[in-house]
């Protein structure tokens, strides 16, 4: 039985499997190494553990010094409701956790030097990306008036007459219900349902200073329960940056979709999706597919694997 999705207040946390999540983070330009060699291999099974890749992140362009924190983790305004508190997943007995991070709801994330692989057959990076392109073409042919497409487009580009009291309808906030809608629509339109019951998300904890100014979002993964097989993922969204009123809601939409691409590749390809800082050729291909679907007026800039915050400033 698959694990439930965690997103809003009405959803339960992922069922504990005895392992913490292992992070792949969304960084800015200075911290992403996109020159990592990415050899192509035949599709293989992974019965043995191989080396655990370095964490990757989607961060902010023109990263400030680590001591500089332009955004405080606790804003007086709370434009987005936080999920209800969840109990953290239990750790295996005797497990050392030298680098432990927790989200606002208590999920634990740590770096681990050992790559953990599922026993299922995984896809190559380019195969996973091609499946997104093929599925989108089939989906649009079979569903010319798709409700999922209408919902996602209306969230990305809200109609002005629905928000006459606002000068900029694209600036109104997104709550967790809207994130649920984005997830459900993107899962059907682009990912052929592969994310179902394998993706959870949460806001960053105030003690995680890297989310104050450097990291916009991260995606962690862990091996799913034995009866489920494969991988499950956890998205952590920067509360200080993504809830800051100086940025358009498009920044949250872009970040969330960016992390959903990571989730898809982790689920399909396993830990190898961490190569190239997580932004593999397949990642870039999928980002281009979604950008093309959104259109030029969408302003999500998914092809850019770095977050240029100036592009998302309200009134900018």
> What's the multimeric state?
single chain
- Shape from CA axes? globular
Give helix and strand order, one letter per element, not per position. Answer: EEEEHHHEEEHHH
Helix/strand/pairing category: alpha+beta
Biased composition (Pro residues): 82-95
Pfam families: SprT-like
Domain SprT-like: 179-294
Organism: Parathielavia appendiculata
What descriptors fit this protein?
single chain, 316 residues, alpha+beta, five-stranded mixed beta sheet, two-stranded antiparallel ribbon, 6 helices, 7 strands, 11% strand, globular, SprT-like_domain
Commentary on this structure:
The protein is α+β, with helices and mostly antiparallel strands and 316 residues long. The chain has one domain (1-28, 53-61, 101-111, 121-316). It has six helices and seven strands, in the order E-E-E-E-H-H-H-E-E-E-H-H-H. The protein has helices spanning 125-142, 147-156, 176-189, 239-242, 249-269, 281-294; strands spanning 22-26, 58-59, 100-102, 108-110, 199-203, 215-223, 231-237. Strands 1, 2, 5, 6 and 7 form a five-stranded mixed sheet that branches. A two-stranded antiparallel ribbon has the order 3-4. Helix 1 (125-142) runs parallel beside helix 6 (281-294), helix 2 packs across helix 3 (176-189) and helix 3 packs across helix 5 (249-269). The longest helix has 21 residues, at 249-269. It is globular, with a radius of gyration of 19 Å. The relative contact order is 0.22.
């Amino acid at each position: 039985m698959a694990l439930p999705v965690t997103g809003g207040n009405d959803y339960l946390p992922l069922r504990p499997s005895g392992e913490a999540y292992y992070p792949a983070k969304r960084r800015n330009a200075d911290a992403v190494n996109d020159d990592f060699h990415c050899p192509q291999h035949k599709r293989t099974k992974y019965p043995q553990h191989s080396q655990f890749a370095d964490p990757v992140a989607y961060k902010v362009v023109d990263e400030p010094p680590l001591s500089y924190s332009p955004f405080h983790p606790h804003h007086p305004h709370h434009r987005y409701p936080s999920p209800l508190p969840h109990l953290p997943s239990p750790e295996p007995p005797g497990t050392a956790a030298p680098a432990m991070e927790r989200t606002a709801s208590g999920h634990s994330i740590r770096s681990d030097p050992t790559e953990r692989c599922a026993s299922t057959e995984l896809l190559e990076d380019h195969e996973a990306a091609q499946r997104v392109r093929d599925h989108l073409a089939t989906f649009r042919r079979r569903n010319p008036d798709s409700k999922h497409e209408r919902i996602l487009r209306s969230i990305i580009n809200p109609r002005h007459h629905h928000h006459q009291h606002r000068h900029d309808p694209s600036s109104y906030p997104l709550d967790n219900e809207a994130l649920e809608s984005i997830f459900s629509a993107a899962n059907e339109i682009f990912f052929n349902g592969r994310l179902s019951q394998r993706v959870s998300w949460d806001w960053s904890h105030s003690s995680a200073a890297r989310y104050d100014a450097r990291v916009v979002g991260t995606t962690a993964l862990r091996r799913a329960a034995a009866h489920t097989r494969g991988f499950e993922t956890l998205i952590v969204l920067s509360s200080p940056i993504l809830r800051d009123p100086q940025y358009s809601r498009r920044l949250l939409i872009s970040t969330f979709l960016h992390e959903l691409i990571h989730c898809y590749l982790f689920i399909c390809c396993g830990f190898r999706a961490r190569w190239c800082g997580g932004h593999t050729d397949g990642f870039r291909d999928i980002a281009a597919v979604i950008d093309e679907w959104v259109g030029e007026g969408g302003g999500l800039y998914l092809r850019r694997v770095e977050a240029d915050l100036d592009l998302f400033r309200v009134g900018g």
